[in-house]
Write the structure tokens for this entry.
Amino acid sequence: MQLLENLQIYNNHISTVEEGVKKLKGRENDLEAIHIYVELIKSSNFRKKKYYNISKVGKPSKLDEWIFKNLIEEDDYRKYLNKYLELKSKLNYKDVDDYILEKHYRPGAIEILSKKVKGFNLYNWKKERFKFSYERKSNLQLKDRTNFRFDFRNILESFFILNEGGNRYILAIGGSGSSYQRERYTVFTTIFYLLGKRKNICHHLLKYNCCNEFEYIKAFKKPIVPFDLGSNYNIDEKLKREIRSNGINMDEVKYFLKKHTGK
């Protein structure tokens, strides 16, 4: 989709609404937002290679898993971490957690288990174990050819874009999946709303569907406002109400999605 081509991350961080309005004032023609509604993966596509990045990752041995469950106290383990992290150059270990387990926990665990578990087999208990990790594909490549990964905790993932010199910079990415994303969404929705009073800024609504495909839904001349506007960043209550009353809420988003699919 052309709208998603040549995107790159903007390196100059904008922290506050006031800073953003000051920096971007007069650039309204160069601003746009892309809001991507993330649909749940179709059940028949779940964990299939076409739709997921699948990798084999290590998991704790049966012995270490038992140790973490039965022997480790958080305060004691933290003391060991603080102690041995400072001694890394002297002790020359590869992994601090492995060092702590070998020095303070595994010998005692083996002694307990050899008495407690009938037919205890140390080889089986210490054997490396693996599991498969499934990460849904985002199918979005940035200009530098790195693959962008959606935060699939988000229902709506929002990109705030600055077009400059033929480049398309992502100023911020907002969503509901983390406190940082909620903060970024509030800051940039407010910036774009205030600047949009001078000249309309386009807000594009897309859907990332159940088959990992992008669908263009509709363009708006006002912001899309999720339920958690104002989370993790305080804005004036009067301004917040104004943005909500003049924006597109999530119920309206779902209406346009439903209208697009004809269902």
About this structure: The mean pLDDT is 94. The longest strand covers residues 156-164. The longest helix spans residues 96-116.
